[in-house]
From TrEMBL:
The chain crosses the membrane at residues 153-178. This is CUB domain-containing protein. It comes from Mytilus galloprovincialis (Mediterranean mussel). Residues 213-233 have a biased composition (Basic and acidic residues). Disulfide bonds join 63-80. It comes from the Eukaryota.
Length: 233
């Protein structure tokens, strides 16, 4: 079972720096007096297994002198004296702390431990799911960015087309204005020629007008003539 787990989770275990050796200072020589050393093991999932290769500490009541303490959450266990090789402790969670402490009295060879990280099938499942979720989220982000890019490309294309249309419209307007101006100028010159041609008509009209004027003048004259006799009456 463990072999099966290890083969599945080999990648995880390797990455987790599994099979970690923990030794007292100066091992295999005697550890120093008044020495303290702490090892912290932390992961997001799985459990830790602590096994003994060699274990020689000063023995004392309740391990008050030299000891190895394993802490998990708020609970702690102390080990001291001489112990045979084999499993010493298996954690319940993915986080443990090992502490070695020596006092000013007797020195010993110390200990050599092996700490392994184990993951359960549930952990592997969780990890794979998490990885899948992360990959999906990444893909989603990529899709989102691509979507944005497509949107911006579409937008740019639209803006470009609109700009092109606007420029075309302006060019058309300018062309028409220039054309109309040219036509007007041509028409103006034609009009001038017409004017020259039509001058007699206008002249006739004015002659007629002057004629009527003169008629009125003569009328006025007649009036004057009419008035004249009254003046002489
Ligand atoms: C340790 O404590 C945390 C909260 O402080 C809790 O979620 C977790 O389950 C505990 N682990 C164990 C192994 O008791
Ligand atoms: C160790 O600590 C004790 C008390 O704290 C002290 O009396 C002793 O001299 C110390 N020993 C060494 C080697 O530092
Ligand atoms: C991907 O995005 C959509 C909406 O943008 C969201 O509903 C969905 O949950 C996302 N999927 C993942 C795996 O993040």
């Amino acid at each position: 079972m463990i072999l099966f787990l290890c083969s599945i989770a080999a990648e995880e275990i390797l990455r987790d720096r599994s099979d970690i050796k923990v030794k007292t200072p100066n091992y295999p020589d005697k550890y120093p007096h008044n020495s303290t050393k702490i090892w912290r093991f932390k992961h997001n999932y799985g459990v830790w297994s602590v096994s003994i290769d060699r274990f020689f500490l000063e023995n004392s009541l309740d391990c008050r002198k030299d000891f190895l303490e394993i802490m998990e959450n708020k609970t702690s266990v102390k080990f001291c004296g001489t112990k045979s090789s084999g499993s010493l402790y298996t954690s319940r969670g993915p986080e443990i702390l090992l502490k070695f402490s020596s006092d000013g009295s007797m020195q010993q060879m110390g200990f050599h431990l092996e700490v392994l990280h184990f993951v359960t099938e549930g952990d592997i499942e969780k990890t794979i799911n998490e990885r899948e979720r992360k990959r999906a989220a990444r893909a989603n982000v990529t899709k989102f960015v691509e979507g944005k890019l497509t949107d911006s490309v579409l937008f740019l294309t639209l803006v470009s087309l609109l700009g092109l249309a606007l420029v075309s419209l302006i060019l058309l307007i300018v062309y028409y204005i220039v054309n109309i101006n040219r036509k007007n100028r041509r028409q103006n010159s034609n009009y001038n020629r017409n004017v020259v041609f039509q001058t007699p008509i206008i002249a006739t009209k004015s002659r007629r007008y002057s004629k009527s004027n003169s008629r009125e003048d003569s009328k006025a004259e007649a009036n004057r003539d009419n008035r004249t006799p009254t003046r002489y009456v």
